[in-house]
């Protein structure tokens, strides 16, 4: 797909993918009278694909559809992202999971990274988005394996012109000029904290601002310092385009970050230092992201499943 598709090509691509999914889902689920179309989309971030283990195995049985089989979907290329849509039920609530997401740094356009949301919206049943991610901690109070409920964001690429709503507007879906001051639903955030208390999760749950950067490089020290000065509490390479498109569709949004590493904000060692701090100290790696994702994944899975009880 080109960077910007005209409206007719957008509509055609969305309708084609929606028709394909309907053609698979209807025969699969027609054997059970208990099936309801999903009302909630859950996007599983890096190392958080285990959320799928919370799907019920019967009544109805889940179905998994690889991205590459769906017209218009791109294949996920990132370790820790299986790249499948999973339809089923979680704690009695019909749900669809994106087990792994698509990123711009993989070479996808913003239309392609948010295409699944457009397709599910076209199918007409999903109205809630629960999005999870792995993020670097910018706030000095955050530690690796803490959780953060997102209540605001900084869209760095968007401020520079790389915005998911750039181009012709789908007027039948949402407005040309979309307000985002209410992007993260207050009642859903209250529900998340309520379930965190009920489950007696010992892992800290903060509330803060997520900063979206394009990646795929982890931030320099100066960039991390800048993000902290701008008011960012965590930083990552996803989520914000998905949130913006979901809000354009009129969905409610709940977003949860797993802090997988703490970002380095101290200035690098000077060549003039007699005993410099090694530059490698605190350096982020994708292996660290996945490993800390495993450590905290059970709490994330249980928390999301508990929220789903009331959606």
From TrEMBL:
Pathway per the UniProt entry: Purine metabolism; purine nucleoside salvage
Keyword Membrane annotated: no
Binding-site residues, a purine D-ribonucleoside: 219, 261
Database matches in Pfam families: PNP_UDP_1
Keyword Zinc-finger applies: no
Gene3D superfamilies named in the record: Nucleoside phosphorylase domain (3.40.50.1580)
CDD domains attached to this UniProt entry: PNP-EcPNPII_like (cd09009)
Enzyme class: transferase
Annotated InterPro entries: Nucleoside_phosphorylase_d, Nucleoside_phosphorylase_sf, Purine_phosphorylase, Purine_phosphorylase-2_CS
Gene Ontology CC entries for this record: cytoplasm
GO biological process entries: nucleoside metabolic process
GO molecular-function terms, A-Z: purine-nucleoside phosphorylase activity
Binding site for phosphate: 46, 81, 101-103, 134, 238
Protein role: The purine nucleoside phosphorylases catalyze the phosphorolytic breakdown of the N-glycosidic bond in the beta-(deoxy)ribonucleoside molecules, with the formation of the corresponding free purine bases and pentose-1-phosphate. Cleaves guanosine and inosine.
Protein family (similarity comment): Belongs to the PNP/MTAP phosphorylase family.
Protein's name in the database: Purine nucleoside phosphorylase
Gene that this sequence comes from: PNP1
């Amino acid at each position: 797909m080109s960077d910007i598709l005209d409206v007719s090509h957008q509509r055609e691509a969305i309708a084609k993918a929606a028709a394909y999914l309907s053609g698979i889902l209807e025969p699969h689920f027609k054997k059970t009278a208990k099936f309801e179309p999903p009302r909630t989309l859950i996007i599983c971030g890096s190392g958080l694909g285990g959320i799928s283990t919370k799907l019920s195995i019967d009544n109805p049985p889940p179905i998994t559809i690889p991205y590459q089989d769906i017209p218009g979907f791109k294949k996920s290329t990132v370790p820790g992202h299986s790249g499948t849509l999973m339809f089923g039920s979680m704690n009695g609530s019909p749900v669809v999971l994106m087990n792994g997401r698509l990123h711009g740094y993989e070479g996808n356009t913003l239309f392609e990274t948010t295409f699944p949301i457009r397709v599910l919206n076209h199918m007409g049943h999903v109205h809630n988005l629960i999005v999870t991610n792995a993020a670097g901690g910018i706030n000095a109070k955050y530690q690796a394996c803490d959780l953060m409920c997102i209540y605001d964001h900084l869209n760095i690429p968007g401020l520079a012109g790389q915005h998911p709503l750039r181009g012709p507007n789908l007027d039948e879906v949402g407005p040309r000029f979309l307000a985002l001051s209410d992007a993260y639903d207050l009642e859903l955030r209250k529900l998340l904290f309520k379930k965190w208390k009920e489950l007696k999760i010992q892992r800290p749950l903060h509330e803060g601002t997520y900063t979206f950067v394009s990646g795929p490089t982890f931030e320099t020290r100066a960039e991390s310092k800048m993000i902290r000065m701008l008011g960012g509490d965590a930083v990552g390479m996803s989520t914000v385009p998905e949130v913006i498109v979901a809000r354009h569709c009129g969905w409610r949004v709940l977003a949860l970050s797993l802090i997988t590493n703490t970002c380095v904000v101290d200035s690098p060692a000077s060549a003039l230092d007699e005993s410099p701090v090694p530059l490698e100290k605190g350096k982020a790696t994708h292996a660290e992201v996945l490993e800390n994702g495993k450590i905290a994944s059970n709490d994330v899975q249980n928390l999301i499943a508990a929220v789903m009880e009331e959606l």
